[in-house]
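Protocol step 4 of 6.
Sequence for GNAT family N-acetyltransferase (Actinacidiphila polyblastidii) entered exactly as in the expression construct, tag removed. Do not edit the line below.
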Amino acid sequence: MILRPIRDDEEDAEVVREISAAAFGASRALRGDASPGSSPGSGSPVDDPAADGARERGRTRHLAATDPGGCWIAQDEEAGPVGAVLSSRREGTWGLGLLAVVPGAQGKGVGKALMARAMVHGQACLRGIVCGSRHPVAARTYRRAGFTLHPAMRLTGTVDPTGLKPLDGAVHEGTARNRDMMDSVDRRTRGGAHGPDHDELLRHHGLLVVDDLAGSGYCYVSGGRVELLAATSRRLATRLLTAALLTVPHGRAVHVSDLTAEQEWALDVGIAAGLDIVNAGYVCLRGMRPPAPYVPSRSFL
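Step 5 output, structure tokens:
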């Protein structure tokens, strides 16, 4: 087996997508409930398979371009590509966006080798974050790597807007012009700005922002998926999540994932909207406390 860097091209992006699909299979619809060897980035509600595939390939190419030292494919001489890892460094914060190994290669050290190579990319970082599944193999992998495992929850179901309180202030549609504000909120909540990741997120998601005398915050949302939310206060986070849920088309399933106990404000919004709360893996952290108020992105942490 050899490890080679992932190239920023459509061919490698499709290879990574195929590895991910083989590794996680039907469990992809259950965010955080992935098959053995699973890891971050393994599950997302598929509203449009073509759009979802485009997001995955775009994510891979983006990280291969910004973090070539953190993105690798494991290749077997006979079987071909059998695993992939995507990781990033952002202002001293290292994130693991994907660790996937195809079923036939699981349990043979492929995931361990990929994880080790990705961690070399983040060895100078003070902080680390992974959104991991609840599968015991994934949990052991991240704990052995020095991460503290914070049990996480997920909101699912369809929104009942009648239970939601009226917004207590303005929420606006965001654009690339809000990037400086979003980077500032990132630094306050997670210790490092997402920087170029905002460009990729804007390609595939709608953006809601608040920025007034009370503070600032933002939320990426697409279909029924809340992809990433950060704010300077629970009040503003509540406003953003409420506004995001109100944008979801009637009857479409909602997924708000990776909520630690520090995100009770989000649970309260979900309960008011008639959503269910289920257990969903771990938010794994090193050198940092759970960001709050914050809903991480599985791809960009």
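Step 6, annotate. Confidence is low (pLDDT under 50) at residues 26-39, 41-46.
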